[in-house]
Amino acid sequence: MQSNRRWICMAVGVALVLAAPSARALTLADLDGGASFAAGSLLFSNFDVTAAGDVSLDLADYPVQILADGFRLSGPLAVLLGDAGTLLVSYTVSALAPVIAGAALFAPAQTIGDGAQAWVAETLLDAGNAPLGSLFTFDVEGYGASPFAGALFAPVSAVQVVKTVNVASGFFSALPLVDQRFLVVPEPLTLALLALGLGGLAAWGRRHEAHA
Length: 212
What we know:
By secondary structure, this protein is an alpha+beta fold. It has one domain: Jelly Rolls (Sandwich). 22% of the residues lie in helices and 49% in strands. A seven-stranded antiparallel β-sheet has the order 1-2-6-13-9-10-11. The longest helix is centred in the last third of the chain and has 24 residues.
């Protein structure tokens, strides 16, 4: 009797596990639908995403991985035999406590054949839509490649990002991943106090050496 009861309990447990909803990865469809996420002390929100051309138009096909200081976009960003496609992505990143003083973009591409190109371009704006900087990574067959771009700017509490991801093929073109990261620094007052503290330590060290 106890053996039967044990087997019944195990069967019920397995059934409950199978029936439980599995965790689903965050995608561009979620973000375009109003979802937001935190990465360290940064909040990413207000996403607006559009897919066009010969890449997948289903935004659920593009997973988003949260990083310590940003996020990684991947998915079917690849085209063949003269096809081309584009993702248009805009969003806001806000600092929850410190401030943002820079951004970096990493997008290693693969291109094959005349006319093949893959690139990511983005404009960074402050809360008043004043330009902070721009980033551009590319791989253009016959021209060259630059998979990394970075920019520093005066510290702000929020940055608006307008990004274009483009793939166009001669024979083949792909962007396996697009990493977006931000430089977070202490608030200006904290930086000033830190500088004063370091200056005081340096002066104390010089005075101590003079008396030694």
